[in-house]
Amino acid sequence: MKNIEESLDPEDWNTARELAHQMVEDAVSHVSAVRDRPVWREMPEETRAYFNTPAPTAPTPLGSVYQELRENLFPYSMGNIHPRFWGWYMGSSNFTGALADFLAAVDGSNLGGGNTAAAQIDVQVINWFKEMIGFPESASGTLTSGGSMANMVALNVARNAKAGVDVRAEGILNMPEPLGFYASDQVHSCHQKALETMGHGARALTEVATDAHYRMRIDALEAAIAADRARGVKPACVIATAGSTNTGALDDLVAISEVCQREGLWMHVDGCIGAFVRIAPDNADLVRGIDLADSVALDPHKWLHTPFEAGSVLIRDAKRHFDTFEMHGDYLQMQTRGIIAGPFLADYGFELSRGFKALKIWMSLKENGVGKLGRLIDQNIAQARYLEGLIAAEPRLELIAPVDLNIVCFRYANGQTDEEALKALNIEVMLRIQESGIAIPSDTTLRGRHCLRVAINNHRTRRADLDLFVQAVLETGQALEDEAAQSRK
Q1: Which mean pLDDT values do the consecutive 10-residue runs of the chain (489 residues) have?
Q2: Taking CA atoms, which of 40, 100, 126, 423 is between 20 and 30 Å from 347?
Q3: Within a domain: residue 415?
Q4: How far apart are CA 459 and CA 465, in angstroms?
Q5: What is the pTM of this model?
Q6: 3-state secondary structure 356-400
Q7: Which is it for strands 397-399 and 407-412: parallel, antiparallel or unpaired?
């Protein structure tokens, strides 16, 4: 018995083929009928108990394993592929991308790099992104797990460029001066986390005041840079925001570029929400100046609708990018021939083992073209403005922030002014709507005012969905007010 050699391949390929066909049939039904089910629903206790069982020691037929998934996973998924999922800022995926993920897994390539077609597809996707954002051919880039890692890659390159020493050899303790980084007070939390991880600490990041549209104030940025210089901190990098998470605010990228050029700072754009607006025919001007940046973080799993996970970063100075991450052990010696010849993609980021995430981006771009994906961005922005109009027309609702992109922040107020009462009311509105399965909004707080937040970046959303949602908010808010009045009697 000890000499028997085993494999994970199916013992019966015909049975495996039949089950695979069934999975595809079920997947088509799952996506095509997405409108016919709740956006989200709470798991019953028996389902939670199912996920609390010990690790299996004996085999289970794959058909049975799949049946368990059908019963315990798909009915209780996040729901972000649903047309009325607008919480936080989730991608809505696309079926071609899902098929590509399957094909990528079948291919099985490790995208650390090498002389393979998969590596060429990865490089081609980065080249397409450079085209779409307006970066030069000489720029570099890499695919990442998401926006947080994309931003961290860029900040490492920026830091090394401005450190004044060879940080890789000497470390940050040997920098002649501490470095200063600047972003709006709407900056995503991943930037603070990155600077903490890089050893600079949270205090290295100055959050610059914003205007009425939540855009970084240029005068406040200039004042922050001058104040740091006066106290012995070397200004290093401005993190401009092209689409903030809270409201979709868009910093003035041209003005920030001018400051960076004048002051000798690296300009990084966190474009995880809005960078791809540059391909939208009607709204490209909203991100005018993004092509002037030294680096840009992108999130294809947001407005390119790539299945999770897929982030990317572009760096204008390819040599600085390479010099920040290039490292080879004796076991990875580059050759001019053979399988190791060719692009070594791990030289541009943290990961040596990398999945073939480029394929799902590549296939969707090939199938749809940049033009259609750009029109879908315009469609979502128009839908946000439509929702803004519905709110303006309803006296019980209050718009909390300008709608400059595709995020709408508002609340059910009905004349109330007590902020704590309004917060409690709107949290309950949100939770009841989520639990009803009608829609998924999220919430945020803007300058002390709590509100509902609707991020419309779903290619399946229609205006009728927004009509239904507003009606649900009004009915739920009114019901809560009636309940409160009844309890006071």
Answers
A1: 86 96 96 96 95 95 96 94 96 95 96 94 98 98 97 98 97 96 97 97 97 98 98 98 97 98 98 98 98 98 96 98 94 90 91 95 98 98 98 98 98 96 98 98 98 97 98 98 88
A2: 100
A3: yes
A4: 12
A5: 0.95
A6: CCHHHHHHHHHHHHHHHHHHHHHHHHHHHHHHHHHHHCCCCEEEC
A7: antiparallel
